[in-house]
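RECORD TYPE: inverse folding
INPUT: structure tokens
STRUCTURE:
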């Protein structure tokens, strides 16, 4: 499918989706969010795609934020609609996707950019990356799940400080706070993301989707994560992938999923 603002490159079961608006530092506008939503849905329904990597074009920015020009004159109701539709179309979709998603953060990830990265299941940042949710400096708050996901990842105290001071942190602090999984040089960023993706896709896609569902359940208010885990664990049995995985183990060979 042809897009205006993103590029999809599929190789070896991995879909590398690049946000391609370098003149705008890959800022998210409505069209880009729509295109990302479409491509992610297509990837999720394609059995040959086993993992998704999200990154930004160039070496300056993953996503430097939302395109402020699009909503600078919005009313209260329009602002609520913007946040609601954005979360539904993209950010919640990514977070709850059956297939693992990796954010390869190559530079600035600010505002909506950091919210996009936090919606992915795994985050890797280059050493030149800068991350923050500076919305309060514009008289607004994060609206694409940032207040919730940042708190979940780094804890309430750090999240309140980071958001209320509009702080921007580097990749080393992001790793130490648990915001990102790994930090590496810019040159090593995509090889590291592909290496993790390759390790993921060597395992059962069925089991991976059930593991993601169970983990997410434990982070959802009003949901018994343990009960979901029990149910998903039981549902693995008698599946072709369970049979293949256990048979391969007993035969001392690599499973073919």
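DESIGNED SEQUENCE:
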């Amino acid at each position: 499918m042809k897009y205006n603002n993103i590029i999809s490159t599929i190789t070896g079961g991995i879909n590398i989706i690049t946000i391609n608006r370098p003149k705008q530092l890959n800022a998210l506008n409505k069209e880009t969010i729509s295109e990302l939503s479409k491509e992610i849905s297509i990837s999720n329904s394609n059995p040959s795609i086993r993992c998704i990597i999200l990154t930004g074009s160039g070496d300056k920015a993953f996503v430097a934020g939302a395109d402020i020009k699009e909503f600078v004159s919005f009313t209260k109701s329009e602002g609520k609609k913007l946040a609601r539709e954005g979360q539904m179309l993209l950010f919640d979709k990514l977070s709850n996707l059956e297939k693992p998603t990796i954010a390869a953060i190559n530079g600035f990830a600010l505002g909506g950019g950091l919210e996009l990265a936090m919606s992915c299941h795994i985050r890797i940042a280059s050493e030149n990356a800068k991350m923050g949710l500076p919305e309060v400096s514009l008289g607004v708050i994060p609206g694409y799940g940032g207040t919730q996901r940042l708190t979940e990842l780094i804890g309430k105290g750090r999240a309140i400080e980071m958001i209320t001071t509009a702080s921007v942190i580097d990749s080393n602090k992001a790793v130490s706070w648990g915001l990102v999984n790994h930090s590496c040089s810019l040159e090593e960023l995509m090889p590291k993301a592909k290496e993790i993706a390759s390790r993921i896709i060597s395992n059962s896609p069925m089991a991976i989707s059930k593991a993601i569902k169970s983990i997410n359940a434990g982070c959802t208010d009003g949901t018994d994560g343990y009960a979901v885990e029990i149910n998903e664990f039981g549902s693995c049995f008698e599946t072709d992938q369970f049979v293949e995985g256990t048979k391969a183990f007993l035969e001392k060979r690599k499973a073919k999923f």
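NOTES: The first strand starts at residue 6 and ends at 11.
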